[in-house]
Design a protein that fits this description.
This protein is mostly beta strands. The protein is built from no helices and ten strands. The protein is globular, with a radius of gyration of 13 Å.
């Protein structure tokens, strides 16, 4: 299967997971996974949320920012991967002056 993000509609999610500003994402969803290509503008964030029944892997493609994980802020930049296991909580924050683009996979645990 090929997921064609180039021809997929961009969704704009205001205050995603109670975060700041908005998140833009092109998203593929089925019963087992959510696979998305997303973008956070400067000052935007995905709010702190817990993964119950799923985990998340985030690859930062471009830009930099921070993740809030286990109560700590951790710098993240292009080429880094953040992993949030099932049962943990995290947030993705763009505290830079340029866009942060990322690829994320959220597999469901059954």
């Amino acid at each position: 299967m090929i997921i064609d993000f180039e021809n997929m509609e961009t969704q704009v999610m205001n205050n995603f997971k109670d975060g700041e500003k908005y998140t833009e994402a092109k998203m593929f969803v089925d019963d087992n996974n959510r696979i998305m290509f997303g973008r956070l503008i400067p000052g935007a964030s995905i709010g702190l949320h817990k993964h119950e029944g799923s985990s998340e892997i985030i690859f930062v493609q471009d830009g930099c920012g921070k993740v809030l994980y286990q109560g700590q802020y951790i710098d993240i930049k292009a080429g880094d991967v953040h992993y949030c296991p099932c049962g943990d909580e995290h947030s993705l924050i763009n505290d830079s002056n340029s866009d942060l683009s990322f690829f994320a996979v959220v597999p469901q645990h059954k």
